[in-house]
Amino acid sequence: MANDIDRAGVAKAYARWAPIYDLVFGKVFDSGRQSTIAVADAIGGRVLDVGVGTGLSLSDYSKTTRLCGVDISEPMLRKAHERVRTLNLSNVDVLAVMDAKNLAFPANYFDAVVAQYVITAVPDPEATLDDFIRVLKPGGELILVNHIGAESGPRKLFELAFSPIARRLGWRPEFPWQRLVNWAARHRGVELAERRPMPPMGHFSLIRYRKL
């Protein structure tokens, strides 16, 4: 896609966000985070949290859920490591710098993959989703929470106008639901289990795919 985001730009943007990320986005995204964690904890077992960032979500998981967290931003992960040490989160097995599109985990490894506000912030969403499904066990779930772009109307016009600025900040705002529909149809190894609107104002969605 022309003028789309790139990996280096995303890493640079989130390095800038690292010192203030929790303050700026903590409350805004809390409902989506808690909802994805509740679904992942209900599944249990081994969970991969992609885009774990500063580790804001880690302490909210059940202590019986084994966690691996990855992020493209080393400065963000430094804060996550500090949080794990401070809170003695013994259920966190791995925190690593990693490209979400090329996960260094074997196939069929995780019971659930959680990606909170990630898909609109990666250069190749479809290839990234493919790798999420690769590392899932059959029957496991991919749990997304993300902004879904408007199909029409003033919000769509705003998202298109805002997109050049948003890309410099590290994400794309005009991400339509149809992209996920087309991806799932092409992949053929997943089924949609749920799509649920999330605050603020339903502009975000919790989306669950089950690996067949």
From TrEMBL:
SUPFAM superfamilies: S-adenosyl-L-methionine-dependent methyltransferases (SSF53335). Coiled coil: none annotated. GO terms for biological process: methylation. It is an enzyme of class 2 (transferase). Keywords: Methyltransferase, Transferase. Its EC number is 2.1.1.-. It comes from the Bacteria. Transmembrane segments: none annotated. The keyword Transferase applies. Gene3D superfamilies: Vaccinia Virus protein VP39. GO terms for molecular function: S-adenosylmethionine-dependent methyltransferase activity. Residues 48-144 form the Methyltransferase type domain. This is Class I SAM-dependent methyltransferase. It comes from Rhodopseudomonas palustris (strain ATCC BAA-98 / CGA009).
